[in-house]
């Protein structure tokens, strides 16, 4: 049993990495190390309001170098990627939890729930409540076997 904990920790890390890759499209093995670190930081700290300068400092690059390398590597800017990541996290929370919209806004580091709702609707065309309701409704397009 003593050797079990390091193995469990390794499995948890691998699972977390696979979950990040699946949910956020993160595949850091193909990116330059500073970009992989930056993306990992954005995903893991989705609740923080991270600036390009903060992240650049933490990965050891200048703000402008991080910005240009980020865009070149991912095809979109730092801010766009950060907000897209927050949007995916919000969609996941709305679809899978009963967490209040205000609490989701707080979790994602948004100013308030009103701003969050306007931003969410601008991005998806639906309010957070509409999105949640749509994701929770049974889908009528599923094929069900006919009963004899």
UniProtKB/TrEMBL annotation:
Keywords: DNA-binding, Transcription, Transcription regulation. The keyword DNA-binding applies. The keyword Transcription applies. InterPro entries: Homeodomain-like_sf (IPR009057), HTH_AraC (IPR018060), HTH_AraC-typ_CS (IPR018062), Tscrpt_reg_AraC-type_HTH (IPR020449). Residues 36-134 form the HTH araC/xylS-type domain. Residues 126-148 are annotated as: Disordered. Residues 138-148 have a biased composition (Basic and acidic residues). PANTHER family: ARAC-FAMILY TRANSCRIPTIONAL REGULATOR, REGULATORY PROTEIN POCR. This is HTH araC/xylS-type domain-containing protein. It comes from Gordoniibacillus kamchatkensis. The lineage of its organism: Bacteria, Bacillati, Bacillota, Bacilli, Bacillales.
């Amino acid at each position: 049993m003593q050797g079990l904990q390091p193995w469990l920790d390794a499995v948890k890390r691998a699972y977390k990495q696979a979950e990040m890759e699946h949910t956020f499209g993160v595949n850091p093995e193909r990116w330059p190390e500073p970009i992989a670190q930056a993306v990992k930081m954005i995903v893991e700290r989705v609740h923080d309001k991270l600036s390009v300068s903060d992240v650049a400092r933490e990965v050891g690059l200048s703000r402008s170098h991080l910005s240009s390398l980020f865009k070149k590597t991912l095809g979109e800017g730092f801010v766009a990627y950060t907000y897209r990541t927050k949007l995916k996290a919000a969609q996941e929370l709305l679809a899978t939890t009963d967490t209040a919209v205000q609490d989701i806004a707080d979790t994602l580091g948004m100013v308030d729930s009103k701003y969050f709702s306007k931003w969410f609707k601008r991005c998806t065309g639906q309010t957070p409540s509409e999105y949640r309701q749509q994701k929770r409704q049974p889908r009528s397009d599923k094929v069900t076997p006919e009963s004899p």
